[in-house]
Amino acid sequence: MTAGTTGTGAGTGTGTESPWTPDKAWYREVLADQPGYRLDQIWHGLYRLGVPPSEQTNLPKHLRAELAERVAPVLSPVVERSADDGRTAKWLWALPDGERIESVLMHYRDRSTVCVSSQAGCAMGCGFCATGQAGYRRNLSVGEILEQVVAARRATPGGRLNVVFMGMGEPLANYDRLIESLHRIIADLEIGARHVTVSTVGLVPQMLRLADEGLQIGLALSLHAARDDLRTELVPINRRHPIDELVAACQLFRERTGRRVSLEWAMIDGTNDADRDADELAVVALAARAHVNLIPLNPTPGWPTVGTPQDRIGAFVDRLRDRGVRVTVRDNRGTDIDAACGQLAAATTVDLGPKPARRDPS
Ligand code: SAH
Ligand code: SF4
């Protein structure tokens, strides 16, 4: 192994190199004195199987040990919990500086979807969201984002994996690291761009930039209200980027990428679920040429209002369909382990002790 090489492209921002994040050029340099097939072998282990070099038992012991000295995971599992008969799993991770984040893995019949965090906390302050209630801590590094996907890959060997940036944080507020992560997810993990979705609260300048990145990813816009006064109440950043700007950004995204934006709408009882709201949403969805995704609001500690009852959701769906809007209602997963949309707060009472990582025995 070549000595004295420093990590390139790791972008961890924490001073810790990760087994996943150094790019291929880094590994190529480090493995310069190794047989040619080594790089492919390690790469396959890392990204197809999700196994760090220190655990790749087909490597010579000394190489495993040397690599383990150079690269260490940046995510330490604190607790892993499952729900829905094992079809939903939530990880609580500790970061090198002690911050905590969560990711959720959901298994479906023909695929799995991992919901990843892009920030520790969030600065956007949407009142109905547990992450927003907890406030902003910091941006995640590329390594911290990628390792969440690699952990999901390890848990779904050989299966189709989709990635959604719908965990903690606002991905477009961590723009450069998001873009690098997307390129790495597509190139290194070989997950097609069409199987990756970024969800945003509506940061218009970044949405416009994203449209021109040449990435065929999906974009979800968390709309929740289709008139500015109500949306500003629910999603304070609306004051800066009101609905007409959002519609224009969705139109441009579709023109540039050929991909329809989906509008996310958490249905909040008595707040945004009246006929009037459906009519306003229909106008916006048709103008934005967007698909609508309804999610019954999930309970969070800091928000008193509950989700819309099923029958009202049905009426809302019918009203949208009557107006020509394409609409789906999202399957709600993991509510009993606080793993559903908007419930991620990385709160735990588990004592980490002096060691950085340990798995909860449950
Ligand atoms: N910050 C980004 C992505 C993370 S939030 C965004 O806001 O889009 C992922 C999704 O969960 C968003 O659509 C968000 O509006 C939604 N969400 C937040 N709190 C929720 C709650 N309590 N119930 C249901 N959905 C919620
Ligand atoms: Fe942040 Fe999204 Fe939660 Fe709003 S809904 S506080 S943008 S994570």
Key features of this structure:
single chain, 18% strand, TIM Barrel, disordered N terminus, 362 residues, binds S-adenosyl-L-homocysteine, 2 domains, alpha/beta, binds iron/sulfur cluster, 10-stranded mixed sheet, two-stranded antiparallel ribbon
Helix content: 25-40%
Overall shape: it is elongated
Strand order of the largest sheet: 1-2-3-4-7-8-9-10-11-12
- Second CATH tier, the architecture of the largest domain: Alpha-Beta Barrel
Bound ligands: S-adenosyl-L-homocysteine, iron/sulfur cluster
Assign the CATH class of the largest domain: Alpha Beta
**Low-confidence parts:** 3-16, 348-362
For this structure, the quaternary state is single chain
Kindly, what is the distance between the CA atoms of the first and last residues, rounded to a whole number of angstroms? 39 Å
Radius of gyration: 21 Å
Beta-strand level of the residues, as a percent range?
Answer: 15-25%
* CATH homology group of the largest domain: Aldolase class I
- How many DSSP E strands? 12
Please state the structural category. Answer: alpha/beta
Sheet with most strands? 10 strands, mixed
